Amino acid sequence: MPRKNVIRKSTNATPRYARFWPHASGYLFVLPNLVAVAVFLAFPLIFSLYLSLTNWELLTPPTWAGLANYVDLFADPLFWTALWNTALFTIGSVVPIIVLSLLSALALNQKLFGIGFFRAVVFLPLVASTVAMAVIWMWLFNTDNGLLNWLLSLAGVEQIGWLTDPHWALISLIIVSVWKGVPLSTVILLAAVQNVPDRLYDAASLDGAGVVRKFFAITLPMIRPTIAFVLVISIIQSFQVFDLAYVMTNGSGGPGTSTYVLGIMVFQHAFRFYEMGYAAAIQWVVFLILLGLTYIQLRLSRSAEDDL
Amino acid sequence: MNGNQAGPGYRQWSRRFLHPGDSFFEASSRLPGMSRRSFLAGMAAASAGIGASTLLGGCADGSQSNGGMAGSGGEGGEIGGDITFYFGASSTGETNSREAVVAAFEDKYPDIKVTTQIAGADPLQELLTAIAGGTPPDVMMAWELSYLGIASRGGMLDLSSRIAADAALSEQLNTDGSPVLMGTFSGGDQQWALPEQFAGIFLYYNRRLFEEAGITPPSADWTDVNWNWDAFIEAAQQLTKTSDGKITQYGFVDAWVPYLSASVLAMGNGVDWFSPPISPTESNMDDPSFIAGWQFYADLANKYKVAPKPQDEGVAPAADLFVAGQAAMCLSGHWMYGTFAEAEDLDFDVAALPVGPNGKAGKSDIGATGLAIAAASKNPDAAWEFVKFSCGPEGQEIIAKSGLFVPILKSVIESEAFVSAHEQIENTSVFSGALDNAAYLPISPAWGKIEPLIVANASEVWQGRETAADFAARINPQIDELLETEG
User: Between B21 and B298, where is the model more confident?
Assistant: First the structure.
């Protein structure tokens, strides 16, 4: 009897709303996050789409422009320059980031005395603020007094105008971007490498597999989803490069248009040219490109998994 | 950030953006309806207050607003409430001197409470975001190169009728103020800001290095034609020292912004940068005298090898070389005085910039910041009192004592307070001379687009890969086109 009573009581204690909405408490728990996403992500996203269809000088009300911003954008030679530079920067950054972070993840996976120290060192560039380290890199890149050119002069190489020569400026940005991008990818890949079960390697050793064979036959297939994730993240981050280019080129994307990337173009149009609608249009094109790239990558990695 | 650094200053340091989307969303997440509503509210508030006609456009006729002005009567008394004051400062010293002005103002007007807002790395972007969001600061600092972009889009209150209605102020501006500084902040019939500080550029030189080399120091007289480009190069060459093929002491370094420095030197060759200087319709960058100035500047590093290459100056700070005694002459503005005065073992003075072969006098620039009132200010009357106080004798004297700024009133520049704040140097006349020989920087709504064009392309000239003439032939038509379409 008493036992039954207890059960009945607890049934009665079920909130009334639960009958209409069974998982209400779950939704209530994620509500704060949902609100944050709606206010700070979904709303700005939709609103910027609206803005991209207007001409908005910030200080006066927006006026409807239809697709004019997009038409102008595709006819703007600087947009194609910026898109090309951004694509170069992205490819130039992402490929070395993946290769180098994979190598350093493998190296840091060794069971060595003091490995924690090396792991901390590799992680350091991630902790530094982008602007602060961009300034330090500018010192290293200085043509007359920079450390890089001094080292090169020891090897008899002529001075390179790292940030002043249009042929080198984008490469210099890529170097810093790789230096900055490797740590996070390394940490993610290191976690994946550590999760590969030891018994697979033991079995392979018994079969007589060497280090290289073990890497390609076991490690790489096992961490492929993680590599795909790192790839997506790196591409998105590189494609949206702004702070680095802004600081290292004095905000101009120079010399010439050699480092004029989409991030700088958006900023200039929004806050220097008073063309918020145009800036929103650029940003939406960037958004769609990244959405497409991410979709293709996920499809590719999924079909690769199916092959296994 | 100082007035004269306005151009480069807000470019120099990026805000903490992770990616452009952040900054963009920050502004775009505010409803346009809201900004329109608050704009209208601001207009209503302004209409209710004095000087209604200013906002409604027809400000040329002062008589209408005079009626309202007379009604609200004298100073202090009835005016009260809260205002916000937005300003840029490059050091705590600058912040403190502005806070001192605020404190003195609040003593005099106990009913007005001033809240200060200090600019971050990118004042223009911050101001645009605040105005677009419907919460502009009531009083905002106006930077000479960028203010017109805000003013021409209705972000600033036209002050002309308020000035006209205040006989004492008009008299003071006419007799003691500087017409060129007022002109920097005026567009036609409108007056968008009152000048608050002057920051022209000039030449700092290391007295000891000149003495050791036995060279006559540069002239303190801006009209001294013997202090010309040839004399400058000769001095710089004698003061440049090399060891093992590396330069250990530069004759000259530029602690300002290369394209601005080159242009000011070019204006010392007898030509304006733009004509007319305010709201220009034509660029003179293809004028032979102007080209000669740019080439002269580029040659200092590339041909005569007496200066580091300009594009690198932001990297190996020129000012540090001067402080360390590794540069004999340094082009910069008054904002560096404090740093140089504090440096140990640095015996320096100031001098005029050299005259070009076609010029009659060396030129400084009209680098200035002013104080403006937001069009949407909810308390423009209190804001106006603050602007008048800061730019008038009382505020200017506090500024003068700090030694951090050149005041804009002649009586204050010549005052004991200002001179005694510059004990370390003898040639204080260079400051007032700079104001008398100051040339206009480009004041145009199109400047936002022209500046990146010049900055991105000028490096070819600084690196010696392109002549100033080729640069001008390539870029000047584009500038003229921008002046036509955006100006």
Answer: B298
- How many structural domains comprise chain A? 1
Q: Please tell me if residue B248 touches chain A, with a CB cutoff of 8 Å.
A: no
Domain map of chain B by residue range?
3-199+367-413, 201-365+442-486
Contact B28 A280 (CB under 8 A): yes
What pLDDT, in 10s, does the model give residues A86-113? 999 999 999 999 999 999 999 888 877 8
pLDDT, average across residues B106-113 = 95
Which CATH number goes with the domain that contains A261?
Answer: 1.10.3720.10
CA-CA-CA-CA torsion sign (B285, B289, B293, B296): positive
CA dist., res. B219 & res. A222, Å (int): 75
pLDDT for position A26: 86
* pLDDT at residue B441 greater than cutoff 90: no
pLDDT surpassing 50 at residue B358: yes
Secondary-structure class of domain B201-365+442-486 per CATH = alpha beta
Q: Which residues of A touch B28 (CB under 8 A)?
A: 44, 47-48, 51, 276, 280
Is the ipTM reported for this complex over the cut 0.90? Answer: no
| Mean pLDDT value across chain B | 81
Query: Among B13, B14, B55, B485, which would you mutate to test the A interface (most chain A Cβ atoms within 10 Å of its Cβ)?
Result: B14
Question: Which of A58, A64, A72, A290 has the highest number of chain B CBs within 10 A, making it the mutation to test binding with B?
Answer: A58
**Which fold, B3-199+367-413?**
D-Maltodextrin-Binding Protein; domain 2 (3.40.190)
A242–B20 CB contact, under 8 Å:
yes
Which range of residues forms the domain containing residue A95? 77-307
Q: A142 vs B311: CB contact, 8 Å cut-off?
A: no
